[in-house]
Amino acid sequence: MFKSIKSLIIVGLASLTLVACSQQGGGAGSKKSKTLDNTKKAGFVKCGVSQGLPGFSNADASGNWTGIDVDVCRAVAAAVLGDADKVKYTPLSAKERFTALTSGEIDILSRNTTWTLSRDADIGLTFVGVNFYDGQGFMVRKNSGINSVKDFKSGISACTNTGTTTELNMRDFFNSNNISYEPIAFEKADEVVQAYDAGRCDTYTTDKSGLAAQRTKMSNPDDHKVLPETISKEPLGPVVRQGDAVWEDIVRWSLNIMIEAEEYGVNSSNASSLKDSENPQIKRLVGSEGELGSAFGLDNEWSLRIIEQVGNYGEIYEKHIASTGIMPDRGPNELWTKGGILYVAPAR
Amino acid sequence: MNFKNPKTLIPQIITVVSLVSIISYFAFNAQVNMGNRGISFGYGFLSQEASFDIGFSLIDYDGSMSYARAFLVGLLNTLLVSIIGIFFATLIGVTVGIGRLSTNYLIAKAAEVYVEIFRNIPLLLQLFFWYYAALRALPLPQDAINIFDVSYLTVKGWYVPKFLWTNFSVFLSSILASIIAIIFVAKYAKKQREDIGKHVPTFTISFGILILFPLLTFLVGGVTLNFQVPVLSQMSTTIFNFKGGVSIIPELISLAIALSMYTATFIAENVRAGILGVTKGQKEAAASIGLTKGQILKLVVMPQALRIIIPPTTNQYLNLTKNSSLAAAIAYPDIVLVFAGTALMQTGRAVEIISITMGTYLFISLCISTFMNWYNKSVAIKEK
User: Considering the entire predicted model, what is its pTM?
Assistant: First the structure.
């Protein structure tokens, strides 16, 4: 009997080694971009978006996605595939988003995601930039008599989303102000809105842009208001998987091009006519000077396509955020030259 | 197992080898891919600060405690709703199951309608109904439904008086002592019945012990009990809430109602099957020796019916426990929402957290089924 058990173990070990040998380590970090190759092969960019946040990523009745987060993916599609519409959108909950990215289900996560140290360093992700500077705020009923976060008293109940930085900031805020509170965390934004609307909680807290957008979904939007205070920094931006430096650069510079284009006054309607501009920086932006695209393995018109098909940052902000009434005032999301903090490295 | 005979040995080796290979393939594959994507693996994060709060907890918890503590909070919440669910599901199930066999047409039909409705609507929908439709219709705290001025029902939860004990441990040990005493009484009664055929009124004695012992602690043990009644307090012009007392959150109430109403239908059918499974002759024989209706049910039908009822009911208990993970859909902070949700998101450690969560459910399920198997054995036919 002992003999048989021993042979069992030996066979088991042998099969283990066999399995181990047949594995191939997928090499990463080489000059070639696996993600870029796969995207070109598939013919579309795999983009992770929210489950519906007006202004950022929201699908209309016929399933067309719009918003400034969506436009980051569209810009990459324009640069890589030549057509901004070649994007496949995957709506993700806050909880699913990072796993979807690290597992390869999507290649860009552009879903109002806050850039934090632990996310950037810990879980196989790389943040490539910021497309919206936000901060967390509170929404309350207008008739509640609360006009400032200083009016909050112990025993208040606050609704928010699970798995967000909001949940953490909320704790920091209430704790540092010595207010005991009841947190109620839902998985979907719609559930939070519903719970707050029904009176389950006294205040609803998330990013201010989100509050403004979600207010439109309330049964009576005019009954609610957003408190003036901002309790956190929420730089929102696109995220890619760690380990594909070329893809990371493509996404980063697709975003940067849109911001830089606004800075130099290049927009979707005048871009092609600026090919003969006297300003060499504008010429580089529209691809008539320099070889910027070749660094990523793209042609020289990649940036021109982004500007023509998607627009510059000012245009997309106006279209999705300002004209929809979510945040008409650009605040920190204004160019550095105009008093904001949008400042990107030069494309040269 | 026969290790000598090669005919039986070879299939066993093949099974073991393929099982080991499959598991190690997946483990290795996960390891290689996680390595490639720059994701580290380890359970060290459990001791890190969780830094998120949980709205409902049975033990002391705040965000400055570890992820392991948050896990424990979630686990206890899962156990709480499962125990409440199992208790009420059994209560409703047995009542409805017996009701379906009633000779009273109205009772039998009502029980049947109940079973058919609640068995055939998906549990998640029922959960949504209770949470979003039924409990959301409750009034705000300032217009609360007042129950005898001590308890209030509102959209924010059900507020009940808080028990303020002094010397609670004395009281608890008196309960334990009475349970031990009751076990002895039961053993003694059984021995008396078997040895000299004398009937000892076990139930009356046990009931007396259960009242007497704890009562004594109040009189001489220095145990006191006070109630703190919830009081409405105003936090701003229109925001009110109850303070003092205990709040039973609507998420817990709706989850417990949905789970017990749904599972009760299956238990009712098990009970009905069990009772019908006892042959008519048994009841007639019992009646012919002069037993009353109650005695027939207690002494003849139930002992035999239990053997049929228990194994499928164990399944229902397991189902209920696992179904409690639907809590995540209505923000009840159970293990799935707290640990496999928030903690997973904040740490990004999907493989570790999902493996712990799966292991936990497996462990709970195995505990329940071990207990039920033990109980089943104790009521099974004993061959002498």
Answer: 0.81
